[in-house]
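Below is a filled-in request sheet from our internal design queue. Each sheet records the structural input a requester submitted and the sequence that came back. We keep these sheets so that new team members can see what a complete request looks like end to end.

REQUESTER: design group, bay 2
PRIORITY: normal
MODE: inverse folding
CHAIN LENGTH: 108
BACKBONE (tokenized):
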């Protein structure tokens, strides 16, 4: 079946957080979209809820309200999450990097 439709990822393929979240040479993280929210929160000290979605890919799709395309990004809790790889059915890989928090200064 994988020869016809491509790689099929399941819970046995990537069961270690080290396989799901990897630091690349540029200092950004490559994250498999199948990474569970709980593991993502532990790795990035975020507080995303896993009540509505189970995975980071689901979180990104929920934020867009649709299946995002390669290159599209969203900023959540100080993290820029960009789609690195996706097809017509799902998101596969994301690039995550911290973005500087810009504070608004009132000039009264």
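RETURNED SEQUENCE:
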């Amino acid at each position: 079946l994988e020869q016809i439709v491509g790689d099929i990822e399941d819970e046995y393929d990537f069961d270690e957080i080290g396989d799901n979240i990897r630091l690349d040479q540029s200092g950004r993280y490559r994250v498999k979209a199948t990474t569970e929210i709980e593991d993502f929160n532990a790795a990035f000290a975020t507080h995303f809820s896993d009540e509505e979605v189970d995975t980071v890919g689901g979180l990104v799709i929920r934020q867009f309200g649709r299946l995002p395309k390669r290159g599209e990004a969203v900023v959540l809790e100080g993290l820029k999450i960009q789609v690195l790889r996706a097809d017509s059915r799902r998101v596969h890989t994301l690039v995550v990097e911290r973005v500087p928090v810009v504070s608004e200064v009132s000039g009264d």
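SHEET NOTES:
- Confidence is low (pLDDT under 50) at residues 11-16.
- Helices lie at 2-5, 17-20, 37-44, 56-64.
FILED BY: M.R.
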